[in-house]
Amino acid sequence: MRISVIGAGALGTFYSAMLSSSGQDVTLVCRERDVEALGRGVHVTGLLERTAHPRIAARPPPSDLIFVTVKTYDIGSAARGIHVEPDTLVVVIHNGLGGDEMAASILGKGHVAAGVSYSGVTFLEPGKVRLSGYTETVLGSVEPEVQKRLDVAKEALEKAGLMARITPDIRAAQWEKLYANIAINPITALTGLNNGAILEIPELEALAAEIVDEASMVSKALGIKTSIDPVENAFKVMRDTYNNRSSMLQDVTRGKRTEIDALNGKVCELGRAAGIPTPRNDTITALIKGIEKRHSS
């Protein structure tokens, strides 16, 4: 089976290294400027050690299974570069909401699924990442015909030593992770703190709870049914990933654009549509956009 991983950031490097080192046929698709560096191999350090040499390409080759791991704001351009064959399965692994829908609007019906990755990966340099934690990758699609084919992706991940499961309700799974992301990512990006330190400051802990409570009210208004307590789960993630540096903190440290629009910004957008006030998320979104503006100036 021909596997491509699109995006050579933290997640893409991690997944490509794991898949390739298990003997699978993998191509890592990256920006042209990184082809030479990645041609020397991809390396995972930290919780486990892996070195692999997947094929490196600047454009996606014909593939049976494609994992899209780019930032949410790059999913559209990544999808437009994909040529799907009749049986190509495209799994969009991303934080926040709306990424798989964007890909499906470009690639058409019968191809796109979503993935929710519970992992802590820090980008060090092109081809090198540090893993601080991995629990599972949750897979699902809103299209029944695509849902039936997800065993292909699950088996590829399991062969790579990565726990994976298929959920019958991928939207609920996305919201369950979103609850933690919208509390952890912007607060750590604004303060520079690691995830767990939020719980050591009562004012930040209270702010995190309020952010998540607003999102919970929005999801209920949309008919999303999750199996967790949103606030307690967010706090559990903070404890479990105590020393992690969130992806948004990594982004602002490197002066990069963040995924705030697909996280807290999406909660604000959906809240307005549903008539649910989201003042904490409105404020936190504005503050992160201020940081982005400073970096772009």
Automatic annotation (TrEMBL):
Belongs to the ketopantoate reductase family. Pathway: Cofactor biosynthesis; coenzyme A biosynthesis. Catalyzes the NAD(P)H-dependent reduction of ketopantoate into pantoic acid. Catalyzes the NADPH-dependent reduction of ketopantoate into pantoic acid. GO terms for biological process: coenzyme A biosynthetic process; pantothenate biosynthetic process. It catalyses: (R)-pantoate + NAD(+) = 2-dehydropantoate + NADH + H(+); (R)-pantoate + NADP(+) = 2-dehydropantoate + NADPH + H(+). It comes from Methanocella conradii (strain DSM 24694 / JCM 17849 / CGMCC 1.5162 / HZ254). This is 2-dehydropantoate 2-reductase. Residues 169-292 form the Ketopantoate reductase C-terminal domain.
